[in-house]
Design brief:
The complex is a heterodimer. Chain A is α+β, with helices and mostly antiparallel strands. Chain A has two domains: about 1-75, 2-Layer Sandwich (Alpha-Beta Plaits), CATH 3.30.70; about 80-155, 2-Layer Sandwich (Alpha-Beta Plaits). Chain A has helices spanning about 15-25, 55-65, 100-110, 130-140, and strands at about 1-10, 30-35, 45-50, 70-75, 80-90, 110-115, 120-125, 145-155. In chain A, β6 (about 110-115) and β7 form a beta hairpin. The longest helix of chain A is centred in the middle third of the chain and has 13 residues, at about 55-65. Chain A is elongated and about 55 Å long. In chain B, the strands form five sheets. In chain B, strands 3-2-4-5-7-6 form a six-stranded parallel sheet, sandwiched between helices. Chain B has a six-stranded parallel sheet with strand order 11-10-9-12-13-14, with helices on both faces. In chain B, α18 (about 395-405) links the parallel β15 (about 390) and β16. In chain B, α11 (about 225-235) runs parallel beside α15 (about 325-335) and α17 (about 370-380) packs parallel to α24 (about 520-530). The termini of chain B are far apart. The chains are: A alpha+beta, B alpha/beta. The interface of A and B includes residues 55, 65, 66 and 70 of A. Chain A: InterPro entries: Acetalactate_synth_ssu (IPR004789), Acetolactate_synth/TF_NikR_C (IPR027271), Acetolactate_synth_ssu_C (IPR019455), ACT-like_dom_sf (IPR045865), ACT_dom (IPR002912), AHAS_ACT (IPR039557), AHAS_small-like_ACT (IPR054480). Chain A: Dimer of large and small chains. Chain A: Pathway: Amino-acid biosynthesis; L-isoleucine biosynthesis; L-isoleucine from 2-oxobutanoate: step 1/4; Amino-acid biosynthesis; L-valine biosynthesis; L-valine from pyruvate: step 1/4.
C-alpha cells in the first residue's frame, strides 16, 4: 500500500541525511520526499511517500518517531488529506499541431505552459501523483524530453 | 560558580562532566583533543590510557553496563575517531550507555580534508543514539548535559560529542543549565496497567506459559520483580543470550539461554510453549531462529521500553510499553492483591522439570579432562557468586552460555548484538573500574583475545587486576566449527598455531601469566589469580576439534537442534 508520512523535524543540518539513512538502514524505500521549513523557522516539515504492507508502514512510523530530531510523525489518511506534487515536463514538438494539442492536454490537467519554443515547450503541473502519472502517459506520444518532480507535499484537512 | 564565568570549551567540557559525576575516562590523546587532555591536569577526573581507541570504547561500554551510568571514552580526530566506531556500534547493538568524546579539526577547516579530519558525525550517526558537534564553546555545557541524559535514559545507548579544536580553545561565557528540553525525546511512559492485567489473564489461561527474559531486564535491574512473577505463576524462565543472568541460573525455574547455542532444555521448552511473556528483548534471530516458525504457534506478550521493538521482528498479541521494571512492579502488585499463586502440580511444570533433569543428565560432554564444560564449571565453583564475567566472541562465549551458571543476576556481560571480537577483555577492565571490589573475569578465546590483548598494558599500568580465562584452541574456533559442519572440513584461515605464547605475552606486559594443562593446575591458577593484585592471563590449551553443542543452524527453528552424538 501507498502511505503518506508527515514528519516535523528540528531544522538542523544533517537531519535529512538521518531520515533518509533510516529508510536505507531499515530496508524501507522512499517513493518521494519533499522538505521545507515551516512557519516556525526552528522546524522543517518532510513529507515522505512510501510503499509497504501494514506492518512495514507501522514500523517505519515507529522508527521515525524514535529519532530524537523528529518532533512529530503522522501517517496521513489519503482520503482526508490534500496532497500535491509539482512537476515540470519538457515536451517535444514535432509538427505544427503539437503545440495546440499539448496546450489542450495541459489545460485539461490544470497545467501551465512555459518556455514555448519551436521544437519544445514546458508544462508545469501541480497535481496528485496519479494525475501526474496520467498526464505523463498522455504526453508520451509527443515525446518527453525531460521531467522534474518535487515529491509530494501534504496537509491533513481541517476537522479530518 | 558564577553561572556566566568565562572559560574555554575544553574546561567547560570537563566541568560539565564532573557535574555529571564522571570519575574516570578511557582514552588516547592526539593533536585534535589536546586542549581537553590538558584539562585532565586541572580536574579530578582520572584518565585511563589505552593502547587503541577501540578498547577505550569497550572499556567505557563495560563500565556503563556494570554501573548503568554512561562510560566515557576519548579519542582524537580522524583515525582516532574512526577507531572507536566499532566500540560505539557494539554499545549501540547492546543498548549500553556511553559518551564518546572525539576531537575534530577547527570549525573553519571542516570539509577541507584537513590533516586527520574525518566526518565522524556522518560515519557515526547510524550507530549512535545521538551525535553532537558543538560549533561554539558556549554550546558545550548544554551538549554534555543532553548527551548524558540521552545516553542513560529510555533505551540506553552511545552518544558522540565531536568537539572542534577551536571550540575547545575558545573562551566564552559559560552557562551550565540545570534544565533543558529535547522536543522529540520522550524516554518515559506511564505504567501500562490495562495491558499488564491483560497479560496476567493471558498467562493464567495458557497451558504452557514461559518467560523469555532479555537484556532489558538487566538494563532496568528488574531481577527481583522477574523472580517474584516467575515464582507466583510457576513460570519457567528462559533468557536470550543478552539476558543470561537476568534470572539466577541455579533457580529451579531457570532453563538458561535459548537460541543458536542455547541450552537444550531451554530450546525444547520454548519450542513447546503456547504463550510467552517476552521481557526486554528484540527477538534476535540468534535467539529465536526463524521468526515465522516462532510466532506461528505462540501467543506473545511483549514488554519493552522501545515502542519500535513491538512488532519489528515478532508480532505480539499484547504489548506493554515502558520501563520493564516499572511494568513488572505493577504486575507483582496485581498478583499480590489478587493473591494469585499457581501450584507446582501443573502438568506443564512437571514436564519442564523432567525435561530439564533429562538434559542435565544426558547431554554428552567432551570426554577429555580439559573439556569446555568441566573448565567452566571449575571456574564457577571457585568464583564468588558476585563476580563479574565478560566474554569475548566465539566458541568460548557459547560454552560460557551453556556451562557457566550466573548465580547473582546482572553479573554476566557479552557482546551479543554486534558480536565484536576483542570486546571482552577491555570491557572487563571497564567493569573492574566500575566495581573494583569484586573479581572480574574475561572468558576468552585466543582469536578474540588477540584483537585487544594490548589492553594488558592498561590493566597493568593502571592497576586494574582482571583475570583472562583463556580457552586456547590455537584457532578461530567458531569459524573452524562452521567450516567443519557446513564446509566439509575445508579449513581456511582459522589456525593460529599456538602463537603467541600467552604466558610470555602476559609476563612481557608485567602481568601474571599461568598455563593450566590439568584440572589441578587450573584450580591452583584460578586461586592464584583471585589472590593476585595484577592482571592474570590463565592460558588453558584445549582440544581444537571440540564443538559447541547443542547448535541451532542458521535459518532453522529452535526445535531443530543439532545435538552431540
Amino acid at each position: 500500500m501507498w502511505a503518506i508520512l508527515s514528519i516535523l523535524v528540528e531544522n538542523k543540518p544533517g537531519i535529512l541525511f538521518k531520515v533518509t539513512h533510516l529508510f536505507r538502514a531499515r530496508n524501507f524505500n522512499i517513493d518521494s520526499i519533499s522538505v521545507g521549513t515551516t512557519e516556525n523557522p526552528d522546524y522543517s516539515k518532510m513529507t515522505i511517500t512510501t510503499y509497504g504492507d501494514e506492518k512495514q508502514i507501522t514500523q517505519i512510523v515507529k522508527q521515525l518517531d524514535k529519532m530524537i530530531d523528529t518532533v512529530k510523525v503522522e501517517r496521513l489518511d489519503e482520503h482526508k488529506t490534500v496532497f500535491r506534487e509539482l512537476s515540470l515536463f519538457k515536451i517535444k514538438l514535432s509538427n505544427a499541431n503539437d503545440s495546440m494539442e499539448v496546450n489542450k492536454l495541459a489545460n485539461a490537467y490544470g497545467g501551465k505552459v512555459h518556455d514555448v519554443k519551436k521544437d519544445s515547450l514546458m508544462v508545469e503541473l501541480t497535481a496528485t501523483p496519479d494525475q501526474i502519472k496520467a498526464f505523463e502517459e498522455l504526453a508520451k506520444p509527443f515525446g518527453i524530453l525531460d521531467v522534474a518532480r518535487t515529491g509530494v507535499a501534504a496537509l491533513q484537512r481541517s476537522g479530518a | 560558580m558564577n553561572k556566566m564565568e568565562n572559560m574555554t570549551g575544553a574546561k567547560a567540557l570537563m566541568t560539565a562532566m564532573e557535574k555529571e559525576g564522571v570519575k574516570q575516562v578511557f582514552g588516547l590523546p592526539g593533536g585534535a583533543n589536546l586542549p581537553m587532555y590538558d584539562e585532565f591536569n586541572r580536574c579530578d577526573i582520572r584518565h585511563i590510557l589505552v593502547r587503541h581507541e577501540q578498547s577505550a570504547a569497550h572499556m567505557a561500554d563495560g563500565f556503563g553496563r556494570v554501573s548503568r551510568k554512561p562510560g566515557v571514552c576519548f579519542a582524537t580526530s580522524g583515525p582516532g575517531a574512526t577507531n572507536i566506531l566499532t566500540g560505539i556500534a557494539t554499545a549501540q547493538a547492546d543498548s549500553a550507555p556511553m559518551v564518546a568524546v572525539t576531537g575534530q579539526v577547527s570549525v573553519n577547516m571542516i570539509g577541507k580534508d584537513a590533516f586527520q579530519e574525518s566526518d565522524i558525525i556522518g560515519m557515526a550517526n547510524p550507530v549512535v543514539k545521538y551525535a553532537f558537534q558543538p560549533r561554539s564553546a558556549s554550546e558545550v555545557p548544554e551538549v554534555v548535559k543532553k548527551g548524558f541524559f540521552i545516553a542513560e535514559t529510555g533505551r540506553p545507548g552511545p552518544v558522540l560529542i565531536d568537539v572542534p579544536k577551536d571550540v575547545q580553545t575558545n573562551e566564552e561565557p559559560m552557562n551550565f543549565p540545570d534544565e533543558f528540553k529535547i522536543q522529540g525525546y520522550h524516554p518515559w511512559a506511564d505504567p501500562d496497567i490495562v495491558n499488564v492485567e491483560k497479560a496476567i489473564d493471558m498467562l493464567l489461561h495458557a497451558e504452557k506459559p514461559i518467560i523469555l527474559a532479555g537484556g532489558g531486564v538487566i538494563i532496568s535491574s528488574a531481577f527481583a520483580e522477574l523472580q517474584s512473577i516467575a515464582e507466583a505463576l510457576m513460570l519457567p524462565v528462559v533468557t536470550t543470550f543478552k539476558g543470561k543472568g537476568a534470572f539466577p541460573e541455579t533457580h529451579p525455574l531457570s532453563l538458561g539461554p535459548i537460541g543458536m547455542h542455547g541450552h537444550a532444555e531451554a530450546n525444547k521448552m520454548m519450542a513447546e510453549a503456547d504463550c510467552v511473556l517476552a521481557i526486554g528483548t528484540r527477538f534476535s534471530d540468534r535467539s529465536v531462529g526463524t521468526f515465522e516458525a516462532f510466532e506461528k504457534r505462540l501467543k506473545i506478550i511483549h514488554m519493552d521500553v522501545d515502542p519500535a521493538e513491538i512488532g519489528k521482528n515478532q508480532n505480539a498479541q499484547i504489548a506493554v510499553i515502558g520501563d520493564v521494571r516499572v511494568n513488572l512492579r505493577v504486575m507483582v502488585k496485581i498478583l499480590l492483591q489478587k493473591a494469585i499463586r499457581k501450584s507446582e502440580e501443573t502438568p506443564w511444570f512437571k514436564h519442564v522439570q523432567e525435561t530439564k533433569a533429562y538434559w542435565k543428565e544426558n547431554l554428552k560432554l567432551h570426554p577429555g579432562e580439559m573439556g569446555a564444560a568441566k573448565l567452566l564449571r571449575k571456574l564457577r565453583e571457585l568464583l564468588p557468586k558476585e563476580s563479574i564475567v565478560t566474554t569475548e566472541v566465539g566458541q568460548h562465549q557459547m560454552w560460557a552460555s551453556l556451562f557457566y551458571d550466573v548465580i547473582q543476576p546482572g553479573t554476566f556481560f557479552s557482546s551479543t548484538g554486534l558480536g565484536t571480537m576483542g570486546w571482552g577483555f577491555p570491557a572487563a577492565i571497564g567493569a573492574k573500574v566500575a566495581k573494583p571490589d569484586v573479581p572480574v573475569v574475561d572468558i576468552a578465546g585466543d582469536g578474540s583475545f588477540s584483537m585487544t590483548e594490548n589492553s594488558l598494558a592498561t590493566a597493568v599500568l593502571e592497576d586494574i587486576p582482571v583475570i583472562v580465562f583463556l580457552l586456547n584452541n590455537s584457532s578461530l574456533g567458531m569459524v573452524a566449527q562452521w567450516q567443519r559442519t557446513f564446509y566439509d572440513r575445508r579449513m581456511t584461515g582459522v589456525e593460529q598455531h599456538s602463537c603467541p605464547d600467552y604466558v610470555k605475552l602476559a609476563q612481557s606486559y608485567g602481568a601474571q601469566g599461568i598455563r593450566a594443562q590439568s584440572m589441578d593446575e587450573l584450580d591452583k591458577a584460578i586461586k592464584d589469580a583471585l589472590s593476585s593484585d595484577v592482571a592474570t592471563v590463565i592460558d588453558i590449551p584445549i582440544d581444537p576439534e571440540e564443538d559447541v553443542l547443542p547448535f541451532v543452524a542458521p535459518g532453522t527453528s529452535l526445535s531443530d537442534m543439532i545435538l552431540p552424538s
